Amino acid sequence: MSVWRGDANAGELQHFQVPQQENQTILDLVTWIQRETEPGLAYRFSCRVGMCGSCAMMINGIPRWACRTHVQKVVQGNQVTIEPLRNMPVIRDLVCDMSEFFAKWKQAEGQFRGGKSRYDAVEQLKPDTPKRRAANAAIECINCGICYSACDVVSWNKSYLGPAALNRAWSLLNDERDQHSLLRLKAVASDAGCHNCHSHQSCTQYCPNELNPTGAIAGLKRMAAVAALRGDI
Question: Are residues 180 and 133 in the same domain?
């Protein structure tokens, strides 16, 4: 197998021989290399069971969670190539700097802004309303960066907010408790926002949680168009 070694300035693929075992995952391979052959190999992981998303890597050119990716499903000619996520600066080896990714999440007004305090009664939400269903469909994003890495528009336009940030904005714009919808809508309808999306659907194709950021972004486009016609933005 080949693993990217280097930093933001220079690097190359380094080749390793890893013993084959039944039901191996890509994370198993990387861990074996770090423990048995190359202790300086840098990579991220935490839960190992497909919950945290921190082990996201490029595996044979496709962004995936290493812990969920079984070797037998991706091996090509007894070879696997592992690289850091694209569209993010490389800190070292397989570790990316996600500062810009999270900054865009903030830029899209991705934080919930409620209008009640702890002293107010808990607001009851009906789970079957259209807005609640739309919010629920987008809410399981864990910010692993897979969709951001898969997005060609991010590659072309570094200011583009990206699928994860826009998906988060869509979930909050459909949350009846949030009090800053207009501010958020202005943010996502900006020059770096939802209208840049070309609907390639790579974000939806590769999302490990089977979300549909492309659909969320399409919803933002419709919402922004209505707001523009009304003169709100």
Answer: yes
Cα distances from 214 to residues 108, 196, 226, in angstroms, run: 16, 12, 19
Between CA 144 and CA 56 the distance in angstroms is 7
A 10 A CB-CB count for 153 gives: 18
Strands in the chain per DSSP E: 2-6, 11-15, 56-59, 62-65, 81-83, 90-92, 95-96
Give 62-89 pLDDT, tens digit per residue: 999 999 999 999 998 889 999 999 999 9
Alpha-carbon torsion angle 188, 147, 99, 34, nearest 10: 170
Q: Which helix (H) or strand (E) holds 35?
A: none
Find the radius of gyration of the CA atoms of the chain.
20
pLDDT tens digits, one per residue of 45-65: 999 998 999 999 999 999 999
Overall domain count for the chain: 2
Q: Which amino acid is at 1?
A: M
Residue showing tokens 């280097």:
6
* Cα–Cα distance measured from residue 21 to residue 165, given in angstroms and rounded to the nearest whole number: 38
Are 77 and 145 in a shared domain? no
206 and 127 fall within a common domain: yes
Provide the domain limits for residue 129. 99-230
